[in-house]
# Entry
Amino acid sequence: MNHITKTLGLAGLIGLAATGAQAQEKLKIGLLLTLSGPSAVLGQQARDGFQLAMKDLGGKLGGREAEVIVVDDELKPDVAVTKVKGLLERDKVDFVVGPIFSNVAVAVHKPIVDSNTFYISTNAGPSNLAGKSCNPYFFATSYQNDQNHEVLGKVAQDRGYKKVYLLAPNYQAGKDALAGFKRHYKGEVVEESYVPLNNLDFQSELAKIASMKPDAIFTFMPGGMGVNLVKQYRAAGLADRIPFLSAFTVDESTLPAQQDAAIGMFGGSNWAPNLDTPENKKFVAAYEAAYNAVPGSYSMHAYDAALLIDSALKATGGKMDDKNAVRAALAKANFKSLRGDFKFGQNGFPVQDFYLVKAAKRADGKFQTEIAEKVFDDYADAYGKECAATN
Amino acid sequence: MSDWVASTPAPAPALRPRLNPVPVALFALLALAPVFAALSGAEGYVLSLLTRVMIFGIAALSLDLILGYGALVSFGHAAFLGIGAYAVGILASHGIEDALIQVPVALLASAAFALVTGAISLRTKGVYFIMITLAFGQMLFFLATSLAAYGGDDGLTLPARSTLAGFALLRSDRALYAATLLALLGVYALCTAVVNSRFGRVLRGAKENAVRMEAIGFHPFGYQLVAYALSGMIAGLAGCLLANQAEFVSPAFMTWQRSGELIFMVILGGLASLHGAILGAAAFLLLEEFLPEILHTAAFLASDDVRARLAENWKMVFGPLLILVVLFVRGGIMGLLGQRHHG
Amino acid sequence: MTTTLLLVQALNGLQFGLILFLIAAGLTLVFGVMDFINLAHGVQYMVGAYLVAAFASWTGSFGTALLLALPAALAFGLLLEVLVFRHLYDRDHLDQVLATFGIILFLNQGVKFVWGAAPLNVPVPEVLSGSVEIADGLLYPVYRLAIIAAGLGVAALLYGLVSHTRIGMLVRAGATNAPMVSALGVNIRRLFMVVFGFGAMLAGFAGAMVAPILSVEPGMGDNILILAFVVIVIGGIGSVRGAFLAAILVGLVDTVGRSFAPNLLRLVLDPAAASQSGRALAPMMIYILMAAILFFRPSGLFPVKR
# Structure
């Protein structure tokens, strides 16, 4: 196994808390994340977020010593399936936490829930897992994939943009993104432009945008594609003329490379590093001190996932035997999320606030997204009603 | 271009069949593995890993048939894995879950794709052949990503594993393991028979010297095309099994990187030995799975942080390992086992 | 809008094609002259980009960084040649493939180990930032014009080198019949080393030039490697002229095709079907082009006679 076992928790020996710390076996958490290839930075953010939470919780979840096993899914769905089987059967994990990408999430869903193991997604939220294929063993501390896009659609609608140009990579998530945008945007879409996945050069699309002069553009360009697009958009002189609305394009994973080029560009999110809660301030400061990077939502979701597991095990006294009790405790989401308001809908996806965020340079020269306005309050996803599970 | 694979005389078939200890040991190990798996306490995981090894063994075997014996380096072979997998996935999503329908459809589709693309590709030689097969593989990959009805890029989950003549025989991991082992044995026997037949000798002859083969009245094109189609069908079968093993189908099965990995498995194992390809697949997949842990354990004196970094960067060890194998062990793993047929 | 847009897209295609040419030129020479298949050529492009990123953050100037990165890329290429490649010249192609794949794995992980997984930023040099208005409302970045100029300059230089110098003559002779060149008393090993180092430097130069506009990240050379192979195969292996024309062709087909395929399909299909099939077709375009060209000319457009 890709065993990067980190046994945390020696610190916990000092304070054997009253929350039912018995001489139990260690709780095992399998962290399934993309840690190699160009998208590795997202997996690292999630891993670091989870490890930070473990440190803050003294290496214990719900009072039980916990072992975290990190595996790399290599962004290959079939590799991920085998690795997950290793986590489930060899390591006998109690929770699988992850992954980053939807195609991996869909592939490992069946083996995990079939083995009656709890599966907590820290990023991927594909529509079928929220709807038709929802499962009582599945929870997400992130969002349903469409929701960040819906934020921008709502903003475009509210601001009265008449003509919007849409740009996405040519794959399923790209198509879903544009569909999500159009859920609330009712104006004219002058062009839906799809570029090949891992496209490097957007000059051809930028030329089109410049000639069409839309009121705004909306784009979904994760990872390196987003870095390229933002730098090229700025270089083409469009940034000051046509508002740049985006999702997963300017965030803490790409800002270190985009830097000044991204300033003033908009994104949609359920959180930002400058969200003003005491817990969040502490989290951001601790994360930056430990990993020398500004945390993104990937880290935040993973941190919250650890808090969620901790809260559920506190409620069951550290016991995992009664799965229904664990599930009921998870569903209560009885923890203080870094993002403030948080509860689960009946499909295991969060009901939470969403914000329009804007890339900015901080006084210390680092870059982060900052909250511009709240767009949705206690917002649930559109697929929950298709979910027949009763949990 | 000169010969793609520098003239490496393929093994002359032994006059009297002699039992080669390597494949015997290999298959004996695979047959005994379920016992070990049951004792390991993580039966499903071990079986699933070994099933994957055998599936890629089948795919690598199919590639060795044309690469090792025909010097046809297909850089689009993962496309056949995809065809087999999508045949299972698409039929299953329409309610046709029986392997007796799925597998023939997969084989026919693979054969059709191989005949069409092979007829075009075989006009070219050497690296041009590599690149044109890549082109066809890429076309199929992009086609799969645009199949929105079947999950597009995200792929689709199988409702359940295939049934066999209406019975849910493959539901358990053990049964799937057994079925895969049988398929591997069957394919191995078939390929051995093919390479030792007259057909196989013509194929090898065309690899050594196509002009001479023409001169003595053989037209290599037809032989090569049939071999290419046969190879594609075997890889398609591997695709059916892969879909059942992962219970999931995705365009990620047919990326060019995957085609490349198949080539590396064959070279790593040792060309033109059939069981070498299986060993190559096993070495490749098992190293991918265990190298991080091996590194983690081997560095037991170092601090936790160093060990974690070492395990995370296992590819920095894997890469040089491949280079060393090439530089110092001619003929891949089969060379290492002293079974080098050529050089 | 269509004519100016077409012009801009053609310019984009040209720029993309020239970058491809910088990479493909070295690849086709190494392949043609040495009969050596170097999968690690793409990571040399990546190394060029990382070197310029590192030097730029160290010196604060892109120009200085570029001047430092070129010899560094050359040195790195020669180091690889001494350590690995020279032991592989007399091996068959498949051994070369496996070993150079090992180099890819090592270096992709290596740059991640040294510089982290997050993409790096290289600012556009001050003098070349900004854009010029080439038509009403259509701005074109100056830096891209600089890439086009640099690409054409290198192409001209290569043409001069290959067709009018002694070393160029040896390279051409080597591409046609290396053993004969060797038999005539030329130190073929040294020729190989020169060609190899030069190819590595060109790839590194391409990486350095795109660093300010593309994200510098691990694995950035993998996809470009495949495109470079497409280019040299279309052009005919060993032919620099073929690589040049094929690179421009691939650049134009990819860029212009992507932008106009849905529009063209709209003439024969209804809009929804046109955009659907245009989307499926666009990424396949260069592969269809390659398959078609190889169908009619199985050794590429400019096969080197041998």
In short: The two ends of chain B are 20 Å apart (CA to CA). The interface with chain A takes residues 40-46, 48-49, 52, 145-146, 148, 151-157, 242, 245-248, 250, 252-253, 288-290, 292-293, 296, 304, 308, 311-312, 315 of chain B (CB under 8 Å).
